[in-house]
Each structure stands twice: as structure tokens, then as C-alpha cells.
Write a structure and sequence with these properties.
It is built from 43 helices and 15 strands. It is of the alpha/beta class. A five-stranded antiparallel β-sheet has the order 4-3-2-1-8, with helices on one face.
């Protein structure tokens, strides 16, 4: 095909009711955007630009998938979806033609014009958060219902769409949700409850959709805490089998989150407070009449739906006057049930309208009987699926059965690996199953993702069991995912970014879970389950699913304990992973670190140098969280030495990061900088790992820069680190980064707007995968931020978070936060509580040798004493301030020294010693060369001005 010049970017291409705007990647029907996947849009653009000409399949594929091998099956899937989106086949809508043996042609006349401005309120759908699937078909016969509910739902807050199974409730709900996207700034979220068998897990399903990992004991509380200040629409789809739990949760969400609206679908009303019910009737069909014309029949939505779906499947199908009464009869027999009509239309290409009506007579009795006896929804659908399944060619039946082992989305490659012995058969069969609406295809991304609807999957799984193949294909499914994640495990250590690795592999999480559940079931293979668990460890870690990782690792270790000759290298990998997630996946840290010692001993036994270093690292981190800084330092030094002796220099830099971190906490900032500099400023070191050693080293480096009187450099260092961290989506890493650097430094320099942003991010990242400890630290920062703004509501938040950390035995950032609580209590006029808090903070700092913050704790103690107003308060406060100055000077912590000098100078000034105060404070202030817009330096400058004016 000759290369055609593209139309000018600013021109609009119009056909029928549509306007195509290639430059904006936008298709409008009237003023309403039509959501298309990017590939479908490119196909449409290519065909419209060459309207009237035949474009070969190879040329289409080359244009839409340049430099990528794609089979014709993928093109057919996109063409079928495009036809459905355009309503191709309806009267006056004939757009795409398949020219046998040649390619495709766009039939409708087009006009080129300047693009008109879009109607107000009907611009492109804003890029808001949502998980709505790209629509692969047009909504037929429900436009009025959707328009009415679009006005009513925002006012009513809670609407249930109720009707028979297969009537189209989900279709209407999705169309309504998409129409309402601009109304909800925090997104529209679809929660499919079809797969939730336990009513107690309804809240968990909602949380998972929102990116939260919840636990049964506090699921509702944590969910409410997350959505309390959000404005969002939650779509609870398929509620009927968990109707009571869904009703209770809906009431709780509406009561606890005023900005949350609920849209539910169910066979029966939820009967919950505030619910408005909209019953969805069957699609209207024409009355029986031998004189019914095609034009008359198409006035009824049931017939329009049949014709549109048949046209999408069978190229060239148009409703004739001869067939109109027959199609009307089919629609009546199917009771206007959308699903059954679509299933029937999918067989027109095989049997034609007349033969289909005859064949349908037998099957209709089954469908009718199911509705008359009010059997559960799935039985009606099972009858429809029975009929559809039995008309499939045997090869497609086999493929559908085998695909039922996939719990989530899968690619063509995975389908070939699991479902067939002949890959060509799978390619053709999968394309046909998509065309017949038995498999859905998401074509919006670079790789087509396939999925069986849950009801179809359950039906096909039953057929797999009846065929005696369930065991064999569960094993093939598990083996495929083992092979996949064994390769992924190898690439994980050398990946350039965690985000790309997760993008490539994260979609496999549901199937890994399914495969592990099979492997550890009574009929499974525990040894295989252990191997798959080992291969899957990077997936759990990248998704920050620390609780799930811990549970799976412990299950694998228990299974290994029952084996006669367990694989010790697998045991070692499991134990190292367990040590890494343990501090984040348990409610309380244990002082007993024997398990870490056992892991190290096993690594030494196996002479595995890298495992030894990882074991030393995880043990050292655990000790930091316990506040055992001397132990942590000793382990980090062993790590550094072992890395040098084994030639693993990069991992040795992890040791330098840990040495620098522990020396910093011990108050040796100069020594810390020597080790941190080896990591931060190493030009050849670009290693990225779960340990985030260079990022974490940079954050500690920034903290020390601030302490040593370089606040501007500290802020720049933090920003550079954040820029680098954006390449990862790992929630645990982000929580750690935000805690170590941005939250801390922003509060130090008094940038409360930046602190608020960082704290919000920390709370968000720590809430989604249920990182309880980091969430508690986020609450600490939230409380400190409020106190910095003079809002004493921060006291309750800070106290609650500290209580949580105290009970958990987690001392990281605990002492400095306790000092902030003491300072806030004193400011709020609670001196007794303030004295108790600062006494506890100083005691813990001395016990753990956490000397880095001693100057500040002593200064805070002095301020609390000074505010007492007792006879010897000034003398005792001065003593504390002098101690603070002494500690700060010994550590080279110029910023702590400035704070202590400011407090002491203010005290002297009040006692008439202004000259001494000026000498003390100016001597410290003059040593700064930057940061003059930060809060401490501005405070000191204002105080010096006060001395000199007075």
C-alpha cells in the first residue's frame, strides 16, 4: 500500500455521528467521548484516513504495532471491539468491511473540517484515578436509565441497580460510573464481589481495590480511616451472595465518609439505610407479528442489541425484513435478558438466524425454568453458558476449560504455555472465544490482557473437573508461573528500576497465589510449593506485601520441615526473606534475635557469601529498629569486612550505609559521613535494590548536613533523592525514604507546606499495603506538624502513635518524637506530663546510646523547666542548655548548637544578661553560611535584632 500523507493535525475527520480527532487521540459521538484502547484508536485512524481503500492486514499490523511481532488474532480482537464501539451494523451504521483474502476497508463517507470546540462539561474524560475497564461495547437500550441516575446518584449518595442475573446490571453500572468520573476527585472504583465467597471479606475486597491491605480484625476501621476525607464513588458489583455484609459496609461507609457515594448491583435490594433502588427491566422486544419489518424491529432495544453484537461477530450481518420476525422471536424467548441475547447473537455466524431460532427452542426451556423457580443467579447463567459451551467446537471447549485455571489476567504467551499443546490452535481458539464473549480482552495496554469473567471461569473449571483434567492443568499452571518467576527472580537483582520489573511481572500476583494454594493443598505438591515461594519472593517484596510474604514464607518453611531432605539453599532464601519482612509484618518486635543468627549460620555452612551479607544486613536493620545501635554497628562492620574478603564490593557498600546510619544515631556524625560518602558520592555505584542502600545513605547524609549547619544543602540532597526514588513504585521503600528524609528535614527547616506534603505521602504509602509501623511513624510526623503550627490537636495524634510504637517495641524515630510530645505538652500548659515525657526520652536515649538527639532533648528539658517558673527554674534550665551546647559542640552539630544557644540567650536576656546573650548567639549564628531563610536562623536573627534594638 502506498504511503498516504497524514491529514493536518488540526483537522477533524467526521463520519456518521462521529468526529475523529487524531492529534488529540479522541473519538467523539456527538459531544460524548468514546473510550477506545490505544491500538483500536490507531486502527480506526488508519482506516479512516484511507477511507474507500483496502488496507492489508500486514500493513495495518505494521502501522499499529511497529517493530513488534503481532499475530492476526490480535488484529481481529481489536477490529471486533472497534465494531462494537461504533455500533457497526445498526441501520445507517456500516463502517468496517472485511475484504476476504485482502484486508479491511472503511466504507462510510468522511468529511474533513476544523475541529469544533467541545460542549461545556463534555470534554475528554479527565485523568482521574479509577479502575474502570475500557468499554468494549456500546450500551443499548439503557441510555435513559443512565441519564436519570447520572443526575440522581450524586444527590442520593446510594443507589442499587437491581434485576435478574444477566439482565445487564453491571453494564449499566459501568456506563453510569464512567459518566460520573468528572464528579469524583478521588476516583471511581469498581469492586467486583463475585469472587468473594466469605461475607467477612467484603471490606477487604473494597480495601484491595483502593490499594489497601486490610486485616479482618480492623478492616472496616482502617477502610473508614482511609476514605473519611475522600470524595469518591465505590461500585459494589454482584452483591447478592454477600448482600448482608455489603449492606452493613455500605451504611458504615456512608455514615463515616460524607464524600463517599455507593453504586451497587444485586439481584435483590440491599435493604440498607439510605438506599434508593432502581429495578432494571428486561430489554423491550417487539410483539409477534409476521409483518414486522427490520426498521420496526430495530426500534426495540433487545433487537438492536442482538443486531449490534451479531454484526461485531459476523462481518456483513444486517437485519433483513425476512429475518426481523425471527430475531424478534429469539429476543422474546430470551426474555429481554441482555446476556442471553448476546450469547445467541454470537452464534449467528455459525448457524444463521433461522437455524439458531430452532436450536434455541430446546435451550430456552432450561433458561425459562431457571427463572421461574427463582434459582440463584449463577444457575440461570450456567444454563446460558451450557448452551453456548455445547455449540463450541471441541478445540475451543478444551481451550476454555484449560484457561479456567487462570485466576487473573493472562497474556497470549501464558495461554499458549498452559492451555494447549499446539500454540496455533490456542491463538485461533482464544481469538474465537473473545469474539464469542466467553473471554474478555483488554486491549488498552501495549500487551493484550485476557480474562475469564468469574462466572464463566467457575463454569469452565467445573467442566475441567468433569473432564478429569483439573489436576494436570493446575500443575501446568503452577509450573508456568514457577518458570516465569524463576526468570523474574534472576532479573530482579540486575533490574534498572523496580517500577519496570513490577510492570512486567506484577500482574501475576493472583495466579501465584492460586498456584501456591494448589501446591500446598492436600492434592498438591508441597515441594513444588516451596520452590515457587522462593521464586516469588521478589514479587511480594516489590508489591510491599510484607504480611503476605511472611505468611507464605512461614508456610514454605513449615512444609520443608516435613521433608526428609529439604533443599537447604531454598531454606536459606526463605529465611533471609523472612528476616527482611519480619520487622514490618509483626505487631511487636522481639528482643530475641536468634532466628537471625541461625540464618547467618546456615549461610556460612553453605559458604554462600551473598546470603551471609544479606543475613548480616537484615539482622543489623532489626537491631536498629530495636534501638540496639552498638549491636547494629558491629553487624554492619562484619558485613563490610566480609564483603571485602569475598570480593562483593557493591554489597560492602550496603555495609557502609549501615555503618554510617548507626554512627549517626550514636552521635558520631563525622565518622558517619566518611562511610556515607563512599556510597553517596561513588561515581561508579548505581546498584538499585530492595535495600535502597544509595538512597538511604543519601537521606542520612542529608540529615547530617542539616545537623552540621548546611540546611540548604540538606534540602537539595533530599530533592535529588526523591527525584531518583520516583522510578520505583515500592510502597515500603517510599515509606522508608519519606521517614528518613523529607518529613524530618522539612520539619527541621520549618517548611511546613513541604512537611505536610511529605507526611501525606507517607501516610498514603504506608496505608495501602498495611505497613503499620510506618503508618504509626507517619502519625508521629502528623502530630509534630500540627504542633509546629500551634495546633494542640497534634498532641492526641502524637501520643496515640507513640503508644503504638512503644507497644511494638519499635524505637526508630521514637525518642525524638517523644521529645516533640514533651515540648508540645509544655506549650499546652501540661507541665507534669511534659516532665514525664522528656524524662522517658532522655532515659531511652542514654540506654540505647542514641546520642544524636541528646542536644535537642536537653534543650527541650531546659525549656520545660524554665516554663515552670519555680525559684531555681532559671538555674536548672541554664544547666540543661549548657549541657545541650556541650553535646552539640562535641558532635559538630551546629544546628542543635544554634537551637541551644537561642534558648540560653533568650533566658539570659530575660535575666538582664543581654550582652552575654548577644555574644553567645552571634558567635554561633555567624558560623552559618547558608540557610538564612530557615526557621531556626530567622528566629535567631530576630532575637539578635531584639537584643540590639533594646
Amino acid at each position: 500500500m502506498a504511503e498516504r500523507p497524514h491529514p493536518p493535525a488540526e483537522r477533524a475527520l467526521s463520519f456518521g455521528p462521529f468526529r475523529l480527532l487524531p492529534a488529540q487521540q479522541l473519538l467523539l459521538e456527538g459531544d460524548t467521548p468514546v473510550r477506545l484502547g490505544s491500538r483500536a484508536f490507531d486502527i480506526l485512524t488508519a482506516l479512516v484516513e484511507s477511507a474507500g481503500e483496502t488496507i492489508s492486514k500486514n500493513d495495518l499490523i505494521a502501522r499499529v504495532w511497529p517493530d513488534t511481532f503481532v499475530d492476526e488474532g490480535s488484529l481481529r480482537v481489536h477490529i471486533a471491539g472497534l465494531r462494537r464501539a461504533l455500533g457497526d451494523g445498526q441501520p445507517g451504521r456500516r463502517y468496517l468491511a472485511n475484504i476476504p483474502g485482502r484486508g479491511y476497508r472503511f466504507l462510510a463517507p468522511i468529511s474533513r473540517s476544523e475541529p469544533e470546540p467541545l460542549a461545556a462539561g463534555n470534554s475528554t474524560i479527565p485523568a482521574r484515578a479509577h479502575n474502570l475497564p475500557v468499554s468494549q461495547s456500546r450500551v443499548v437500550g439503557r441510555i435513559d436509565v443512565i441519564a436519570t441516575l447520572q443526575e440522581q446518584l450524586p444527590k442520593w449518595r446510594f443507589v442499587s441497580i437491581v434485576g435478574e442475573g444477566g439482565i445487564g446490571k453491571t453494564t449499566v453500572a459501568l456506563a453510569l460510573a464512567e459518566a460520573l468520573l468528572p464528579s469524583y476527585e478521588d476516583g471511581v472504583w469498581l469492586v467486583d464481589l463475585a469472587s468473594v465467597s466469605d461475607p467477612r471479606l467484603v471490606a477487604d475486597a473494597v480495601g484491595n481495590t483502593l490499594g489497601l491491605t486490610l486485616h479482618a480484625e480492623d478492616a472496616v476501621f482502617r477502610l473508614l480511616d482511609f476514605v473519611r476525607d475522600k470524595r469518591m464513588l465505590i461500585v459494589l458489583d454482584n452483591c447478592e451472595h454477600v448482600v448482608e455484609a455489603a449492606a452493613v459496609l455500605a451504611e458504615q461507609l456512608l455514615a463515616g465518609a460524607p464524600g463517599v457515594h455507593i453504586l451497587a448491583t444485586s439481584r435483590e435490594p440491599l435493604r440498607a439505610e439510605g438506599e434508593r433502588v432502581r429495578r432494571l427491566p428486561p430489554l423491550d422486544s417487539p410483539a409477534a407479528s409476521p409483518d414486522l419489518t427490520a426498521a420496526d424491529a430495530l426500534a426495540f432495544p433487545a433487537v438492536r442489541l442482538f443486531v449490534e453484537r451479531a454484526a461485531a461477530i459476523s462481518d456483513g450481518f444486517e437485519l433483513s425484513d425476512t429475518d426481523a420476525p425471527v430475531v424478534a422471536d429469539i429476543c422474546r424467548k430470551l426474555g429481554g435478558m441482555a446476556l442471553a441475547i448476546e450469547l445467541a447473537a454470537a452464534r449467528v455466524d455459525a448457524f444463521g438466524v433461522a437455524q439458531l431460532a430452532v436450536l434455541l427452542d430446546d435451550r430456552f426451556r432450561i433458561l425459562k425454568r431457571g427463572r421461574r423457580t427463582a434459582q440463584p443467579r449463577h444457575q440461570s447463567l450456567t444454563a446460558a453458558l451450557d448452551w453456548s459451551y455445547e455449540f463450541l467446537p471441541e478445540g475451543e471447549r478444551v481451550i476454555l476449560r484449560r484457561l479456567s485455571v487462570f485466576a487473573g489476567a493472562f497474556t497470549l504467551e501464558s495461554a499458549i504455555a498452559v492451555a494447549g499443546d499446539d500454540s496455533a490452535d490456542v491463538v485461533e481458539g482464544l481469538a474465537n472465544l473473545v469474539a464469542k464473549s466467553l473471554v474478555s480482552a483488554d486491549v488498552s495496554g501495549p500487551t493484550v490482557q485476557y480474562r475469564l469473567l468469574e462466572t464463566t471461569r467457575a463454569y469452565a473449571m467445573q467442566k475441567l473437573i468433569e473432564a478429569g483434567e483439573s489436576e494436570a492443568y493446575a500443575r501446568r499452571h503452577a509450573q508456568h508461573h514457577f518458570d516465569w518467576f524463576r526468570r523474574a527472580e534472576a532479573s530482579w537483582a540486575t533490574r534498572s528500576t523496580g517500577a519496570q520489573w513490577l510492570k512486567d511481572n506484577g500482574r501475576g500476583i493472583d495466579d501465584v497465589r492460586s498456584a501456591l494454594n494448589w501446591a500446598f493443598s492436600p492434592d498438591g505438591d508441597p515441594a513444588f510449593g516451596v520452590a515457587l515461594t522462593v521464586a516469588s519472593i521478589p514479587l511480594w517484596l516489590e508489591l510491599s506485601l510484607v504480611h503476605e510474604c511472611r505468611a507464605d514464607v512461614e508456610r514454605a518453611l513449615a512444609a520443608q520441615a516435613l521433608q526428609e531432605s529439604p533443599n537447604e539453599r531454598d531454606t536459606l532464601k526463605l529465611r533471609v526473606a523472612h528476616g527482611l519482612v519480619l520487622p514490618h509484618a509483626i505487631r511487636a518486635l522481639s528482643e530475641d534475635t536468634a532466628s537471625y543468627a541461625e540464618t547467618l549460620a546456615l549461610a556460612e555452612k553453605l559458604d554462600d557469601d551473598e546470603a551471609q551479607l544479606r543475613a548480616l544486613y537484615t539482622w543489623s536493620v532489626y537491631c536498629v529498629y530495636l534501638g540496639k545501635y552498638r549491636d547494629a554497628l558491629a553487624l554492619a562492620e562484619r558485613l563490610r569486612a566480609r564483603a571485602d574478603s569475598s570480593g562483593l564490593g557493591d554489597l560492602g557498600l550496603v555495609g557502609d550505609m549501615m555503618i554510617g546510619n548507626t554512627l549517626h544515631h550514636l552521635g558520631d556524625h563525622v565518622g558517619a559521613l566518611r562511610h556515607l560518602d563512599l556510597v553517596v558520592n561513588n561515581p561508579t555505584y548505581s546498584r538499585r535494590s530492595m535495600y535502597a542502600d544509595r538512597l538511604m545513605a543519601a537521606l542520612v547524609y542529608a540529615d547530617i548536613l542539616w545537623l552540621r549547619g548546611c540546611p540548604d544543602q540538606a534540602v537539595r540532597c533530599i530533592q535529588q533523592t526523591l527525584d531518583e526514588a520516583r522510578s520505583t513504585r515500592n510502597a515500603l521503600m517510599h515509606a522508608n525514604i519519606l521517614t528518613q528524609g523529607p518529613c524530618t528535614v522539612a520539619l527541621y527547616v520549618g517548611d511546613l507546606a513541604e512537611a505536610e506534603r511529605a507526611v501525606g505521602l507517607l501516610l498514603d504509602y504506608s496505608a495501602k499495603p498495611a505497613l503499620n509501623t510506618w503508618n504509626a511513624l507517619g502519625r508521629c510526623f502528623q502530630g509534630r506538624l500540627l504542633l509546629a503550627r500551634g495546633d494542640f490537636a497534634g498532641l492526641a495524634i502524637l501520643r496515640t502513635a507513640l503508644n503504638w510504637l512503644r507497644e511494638a517495641g519499635f524505637t526508630f524515630h521514637y525518642v525524638i518524637s517523644l521529645g516533640a510530645l514533651a515540648e508540645g505538652l509544655a506549650a499546652a500548659g501540661q507541665p507534669a506530663e511534659a516532665h514525664m515525657a522528656i524524662a522517658e526520652a532522655l532515659e531511652l536515649a542514654e540506654k540505647n546510646e542514641e546520642h544524636w538527639c541528646l542536644p535537642e532533648l536537653l534543650r527541650i528539658k531546659g525549656e520545660i523547666i524554665r516554663s515552670d517558673g519555680s525559684a531555681n527554674a532559671a538555674s536548672a534550665a541554664e544547666d540543661c542548655f549548657r549541657q545541650a551546647l556541650d553535646w552539640a559542640r562535641r558532635q559538630g552539630a551546629l544546628s542543635w548548637e544554634l537551637r541551644a544557644a537561642t534558648s540560653l540567650a533568650r533566658l539570659w536576656h530575660r535575666n538582664g544578661r543581654t550582652a552575654e546573650a548577644d555574644d553567645l548567639l552571634s558567635a554561633v549564628y555567624d558560623r552559618f553560611t547558608e540557610g538564612f531563610d530557615t526557621v531556626d536562623l530567622k528566629t535567631a536573627a530576630a532575637l539578635l535584632e531584639e537584643f540590639r534594638v533594646g
